[in-house]
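Check the record.
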Amino acid sequence: MNRITIYGTQINDEGGYDRLGWFDLDAAEHVLEESSRWNGQSMIGVISGMQINRAQLYRTKGGRWVENQDSRPEFNGPNTWRFLTDDEARNWMVKSGGPEAEEALEKWFPETPDEIGPDPKGGRPTVGPTINVAYPRELLDKIEAAAKKEGMSRAAWLRKVAEEAVS
């Protein structure tokens, strides 16, 4: 058994670090090593920013994600381990990129869309489905005045009023 203990990064009241848990490295699956990119001077890891060693992503036997960054060879620094959430692990794979990362994404997160980003048409992010509602002009003027008085858009004010009405 090769037990790895993971500690928090904040100093606790006793002047040490809280133990967050442990896992058996021998029983864990090595999922991915970060890829590297040219930074204008040398190749560096896209996750760690290190030149010599790379960050590693593991999946424990118990189903937790773990990241390892070992900066000892490069900076005589620490060998750090930390637990990741599913979202952090998915983002780790996306950021790392390359064929191995694509294979890992397909295996562990097959629902990951091919593309995520701002709407190419621009505008605000979608809050929910769009509905069309017709108001008499007098009521619409009152709604716009009330929204302006509260410093809100008409749509935001209507959402707020509707939420208050059904709560």
About this structure: The chain has a mean pLDDT of 88. Residues 3-108 form one domain. DSSP finds five helices and eight strands in the chain.
